[in-house]
Specification:
It is a single chain. The strands form 5 sheets. A 7-stranded mixed sheet has the order 11-10-12-13-15-14-20, sandwiched between helices. It has a 6-stranded parallel sheet with strand order 2-1-3-4-8-7, sandwiched between helices. A 5-stranded mixed sheet has the order 17-19-18-21-22, sandwiched between helices. The chain is α/β, with parallel strands linked by helices. The protein starts with 11 loop residues before the first helix and ends in a 9-residue tail after the last helix. Helix 6 links the parallel strand 3 and strand 4. It is built from 27 helices and 22 strands. Helix 1 packs antiparallel against helix 10, helix 2 packs parallel to helix 8 and helix 18 packs parallel to helix 19. The longest helix has 46 residues. It comes from Flavobacterium suzhouense.
Length: 801
């Protein structure tokens, strides 16, 4: 099929050969679905969700899909992946079994359930491959419509590569922006807000995106009449159709069982998107779902007899076979022979995948049994050990959990025996060898890992003057955009006015509106723009205007961006920088600091909380040399505060995971971050006046946190600890306390109870008084510290209240 992509015409015999090849792929995919369901029902696999009923339109999509293109789809697209040569039978079943070896399950090394597809954008060292020489699929996620925001960014990257000068050398990623981003979604999932937000944004941006809606009239058991107005997604999106009065979409509607019409539809869509950079919506309707939604239930429960009969007749594979026979592409006997041969191939592929999965575990089982039998022979607890050994031996198809459960339970029996050390060592070695199969690559393991970047201090000329913090930020962004032609920033009010705090003042005029641009009020797709563009070699900075608004995008950050390196076992990355601002404004909606929620939702993304603009600028400089995503939270009330202007703009770097001691002291360690530090510093001055000498530590980075364990060194000196945070009780302060007391073992050095001082549990009330009575004040800090010292030295520090 690849060989025919660029042919203008082929002979009838060649055409027949191509059609027969397509049919073989469709039948192979269908047989994998049927056999895959049986594997789940027999217990070899945990859950199955398959692409049966969608085979033929996916063949048509694959024909129009070229090297360099990207797919952003959902878990029904197995036929497409087979058609572009990125999924074979054995890999299909390896994914179903959850094989934790990337060589067997290249999609996710068993980290995602079957049906979640990806290609490798990176080599084994985390370096970019040439994406223009391969067909690409971004890694799927399960949340419905969660693939949509990323799709927008994948398409926008082509727009950038076609229109921005200076990045022509990025030939690994684009050839003149000719690449299309292909999206797929089920008709029911078009009900999600992420779908509509992305559709609107793509129409505004005019990006080369082809969006396929697989419409089988159901969302699990719920009919389209409960999902979509008029039960028809293309009907209600008619207003997006481009015309002489305005730009928009090309909308195509095609029956999902009509092989030649599907091919024509996808060829038309590809031509429009690739050459004109116009988005296209293809509504593929009259599709079926022969096995129902998934292995969790039967569709006979919710489809009536007429619907089931219609699905049997209009099954796309059956209709393709009928069309082939009517047009003399093959005889019934030839197709029957093909089908029988494919059944054998799928069965053999399934067996090979299962053997490759289970045989290594069986070898590990034998190794452990030998160790246990040797221990049992010398143990007074032999009878009990033999029982466990017998149970483990009886497991014909073990999993790794079976081995460790047995070994760890037997270890308890022999804790006072000579064999204990042998078994304990086996458990340790086995865990160290096995755990990375399930836990590696939360962050990058390449040489561009953010923790490898060393600090470069800001430098200052002798005559350096004070400037507004926003000027430090603006001038540093100027240096960044000059140094990195692939860097760009976008968000609400980023472009024309240079962001709401003018940290980008004049940047759009200097670098153009493709690199410094405004975006609509649509935080989820702003994040998606960044993810997709970062996956294609650009260095986007996605701005979310305020920290509160980040909640609109937290699902995309959590489910997609934060898990990308992990769920591909290090074979895809999106080094997106998310810029926002927060802390200490007055009112419910623009003063929240939900850091506890954020840091616990987005593990896999660095969370940086600089106290001033120089520190923030240093973080941006650092991150642009790494291959990892990060969130930078600037202090909203710091843009007009004075800072010295560094002379090495774009070069100084703030290290990740490194704390800074702002004031040394001997009586208590005060730990905080961001704007709250100014309150802490004021309180520390007042505490000195009453004889309390506090040490102040700026966390700077919540994820990662104090990698050098410097805070515990402070606690060892002061023997007291207070964490101050403007998040809610139990929010980020609880995380910080856990890191210090538990991870750093600071409890050993404490003479007083470690405490936290936080905001109230409610959102801050409006106005200055609302802020004062809702969030920590310098008086609160003073009195909290004083109370701790009173408990320790009541005579020296009499009770205040």
């Amino acid at each position: 099929m690849t060989d025919t992509e660029t042919k203008k015409s082929i002979s009838f015999e060649d055409f027949k050969t191509e059609v027969l090849n397509d049919y073989k792929i469709a039948v192979t995919s269908r047989e994998c679905s049927l056999l895959g369901r049986r594997e789940v029902l027999t217990g070899k696999a945990k859950f199955g969700i398959f692409g049966d009923g969608k085979e033929v339109p996916q063949l048509a999509m694959a024909k129009a899909f070229k090297n360099g293109d990207f797919r952003s789809g959902y878990y029904r697209d197995q036929t497409f992946m087979m058609a572009i040569g990125q999924l074979n039978i054995q890999q299909f079943f390896a994914g179903l079994y959850g094989h934790s070896d990337l060589n067997h399950d290249p999609m996710s090394a068993g980290r995602q359930m079957g049906g979640h597809f990806a290609t490798h954008s990176l080599d084994e060292n985390g370096n970019w491959k040439n994406l223009t020489l391969q067909k690409n699929s971004s890694s799927d996620i399960s949340p419905t419509a969660g693939q949509m925001p990323r799709l927008l960014g994948l398409a926008q990257a082509s727009k950038i590569y076609r229109n921005v000068t200076g990045i022509e050398n990025k030939t690994n990623f684009s050839i003149n922006g000719n690449e299309i981003a292909w999206g797929t979604i089920g008709n029911a999932s078009t009900s999600e807000g992420l779908f509509f937000e992305t559709i609107n944004a793509a129409g505004v941006l005019q990006v080369p995106m082809v969006m396929s809606v697989w419409d089988d009239e159901y969302g699990i058991s719920v009919h389209a009449r409960y999902q979509t107005t008029k039960e028809n997604i293309s009907e209600i999106l008619k207003g997006f159709q481009r015309d002489e009065n305005g730009k928009g979409y090309e909308i195509i509607k095609v029956k999902g069982w009509d092989y030649p019409e599907l091919i024509a539809a996808y060829e038309k869509a590809a031509k429009i998107a690739r050459t004109e950079h116009v988005p296209v919506l293809i509504h593929v309707y009259q599709l079926t779902q022969p096995q129902g939604h998934s292995t969790s239930g039967s569709h006979e429960r919710y489809k009536n007899a007429d619907r089931l009969a219609w699905e049997a007749e209009y099954d796309c594979v059956a209709q393709m076979k009928k069309w082939m026979l009517e047009n003399n592409m093959a005889t019934t006997e030839e197709l029957d022979t093909i089908e029988e041969q494919i059944k054998k191939e799928v069965l053999e592929g399934k067996k090979a995948a299962w053997a490759a999965y289970v045989n290594p575990i069986k070898e590990e089982q034998k190794e452990l049994l030998a160790v246990l039998n040797s221990i049992a022979a010398q143990s007074p607890n032999k009878v009990f050990i033999d029982k466990y050994v017998s149970e483990l031996s009886a497991i014909k198809e073990p999993i790794r959990k079976d081995l460790l459960v047995t070994a760890r339970k037997i270890l308890r029996l022999i804790v006072k025996e000579n064999g204990k050390n042998i078994l304990a060592q086996w458990i340790t070695d086995y865990t160290e060898k096995t755990q990375p199969r399930y836990s590696s690559h939360l962050f990058s393991q390449s040489d561009k890992n953010a923790l490898n970047i060393k600090e470069v201090l800001p430098q200052y000329n002798d005559d350096a003057e004070d400037a507004d913090g926003r000027m430090v930020m603006r001038n540093n962004f100027d240096a960044i955009f000059s140094k990195y032609p692939e860097a760009l920033v976008f968000g609400e009010d980023c472009g024309n006015i240079g962001d709401v705090n003018q940290g980008l003042e004049g940047m759009q005029e200097k670098y153009g509106d493709f690199r410094v641009c405004d975006a609509g009020i649509r935080e989820a797709t702003i994040l998606g723009q960044g993810i997709g563009m970062a996956m294609r070699g650009l260095r986007p900075i996605a701005e979310i205007q305020y920290l509160d608004y980040l909640l609109y995008a937290i699902q995309i950050m959590s489910d997609d961006l934060a898990t990308l390196q992990y769920r591909t076992a290090g074979r895809q990355k999106a080094p997106l920088i998310i810029r926002t601002r927060g802390h200490r404004l007055e009112g419910i909606w623009h003063s929240g600091s939900p850091m506890g929620m954020i840091i616990n939702a987005i593990r896999g993304i660095h969370v940086l909380v600089p106290r001033n603009m120089t520190k923030a600028a240093g973080f941006y400089n650092t991150l642009l040399t790494t291959d990892e995503p990060a969130l930078v939270v600037e202090c909203l009330n710091g843009y007009r505060l004075k800072e010295k202007m560094p002379s090495n703009l774009g070069e100084f770097k703030t290290p990740l995971g490194v704390v800074e001691t702002l004031k040394e002291g001997k009586d208590i360690t005060l730990v905080s971050y961001g704007s709250t530090l100014r309150i802490v510093e004021q309180a520390a001055k007042e505490l000195l006046e009453v004889g309390i000498d506090a040490e102040i530590i700026d966390v700077q980075s919540l994820l990662p946190f104090d990698i050098n364990h410097d805070i515990v060194k402070s606690v060892a000196k002061t023997n007291r600890l207070l964490v101050i945070d403007e998040d809610v009780p139990g929010g980020a302060s609880a995380y910080i306390l856990q890191q210090i007391v538990e991870e750093q073992n600071a409890y050993k050095h404490l003479d007083s109870k470690p405490e936290t001082l936080t905001a109230k549990a409610h959102r801050p009330s409006y106005g200055t008084d609302g802020d004062y009575f809702s969030k920590p004040s310098s008086e609160d800090v003073f009195e909290k510290v004083y109370a701790i010292m009173h408990e320790a030295k009541p005579n020296e520090f009499p009770k205040l209240y």
